[in-house]
Amino acid sequence: MLNKLIILLIILLSLLSKNRPMTYGGLFIFLLSFLNKEYLNRLDKGIFLTLGMTSLIIWMLIPLIQTSATINSFHLKSYLNLEGLVSFISGLMIVIIASKGSRFINDNVSSLLGITLGSIIGVAFLGGIPVGMLSGAGMAYLIVKLIKILIGDS
């Protein structure tokens, strides 16, 4: 019952902050919460991650078809600049960090509420966009790991 109340709180906060993806996700999970628990235990969460990531990748790649870019405009030399190299390294690092975040959330369910509320507040008050929960989980993983190293509790 407490889980459903938390989900309803997330939906309410998402509605108030106009965070539509979080609202829709919360409503979907709220509806799923009424299903048989045995069915839910067999449900592959990876399907939803794949659908979400696919949607995000489609959104990111749309500019490629909106511009009048030709084969001649894609020169390797034009990507070998500061922005291109830093972007490449950032992309490489964030997928590794996000994979750690995915495991962190699965192993520490209590962290999920903090990441979710942080995401809602970031969207509502700080102009964020709700695409970074796995990255946020990865950052949480790194910060927790760093703190544990600093205090000697590895």
Automatic annotation (TrEMBL):
InterPro entries for this protein: UPF0756_TM
- Species source reads Tissierella simiarum
* Kinase in keyword set: no
Key word Transmembrane present = yes
Q: Where are the transmembrane segments?
A: 45-67, 79-99, 111-144
Which branch of life, at top level?
Answer: Bacteria
Which UniProt keywords are given for this protein, alphabetically ordered?
Answer: Cell membrane, Membrane, Transmembrane, Transmembrane helix
The protein's name: DUF441 domain-containing protein
